[in-house]
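Proteins fold reproducibly. Look at a concrete instance:
___
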Amino acid sequence: MMKQYDIGDKILTRLKRVGRIEVNEFIALFVNKRFKDPFIVLIATIISQNTNEKNTFKAFESLRRKIGELKPERLADMSLDEIVDAIRVSGMYRVKSRAIKEVSKLILKEFKGNTEALRNLSIDEAYSILLQVPGVGKKTVDVMLAYMGKPVLPVDTHIRRIAKRLGVTTSNNYEDIKESLENIFRPELRLKAHLYLIKLGRSICKASKPLCLKCPLNDICKEGQKNLPKGS
């Protein structure tokens, strides 16, 4: 009899064939390893919205050079134009700059600038506080929570596409997709699943012309089965 997480374990074992997870492939992973600060993970994730990792890293380092330490009090004091100039390469820079400035003010107001307080929030508390900021959505908060050890599986465009192709969900709704994936991946492995699914989406399960023959999940993927040559 199949247990709840058997399919997730199988998927994760297969996904490791795609290659190792490298720190410099994921801004949030890099930032968490280097700074170990939930606030900096949050800022980096805001910058990463709707752009690629290359431009995210450029924008993040540009902001660091401009301001020095990424502290809420420093970001709150920066002008919007200063933040815009620093992160312009990431695109959507005005929306992101406002979000960065407003979330910095919020951390000052709620926690007197103590960014470690973010680490101790429950999932619901984090949503309640951080989703007040326009430009900060559940995926952004979930990324921060995942790196703080909370059992969430953030869903980006790659993961949404893969979940639908696999037949894990038919929904376009963020919460539905997230719940479907969390139902198959063990709580302690959800961050790892998040990273490997993104890696698969970037390298093999692409939006157009997916490389189904090379995919380690092609025998359990509903969409992949349609794209494989007959007899594969």
Notes: Residues 6-21+152-227 form a domain with the Endonuclease Iii, domain 2 fold (CATH 1.10.1670.10). The chain has two domains: 6-21+152-227, 37-147.
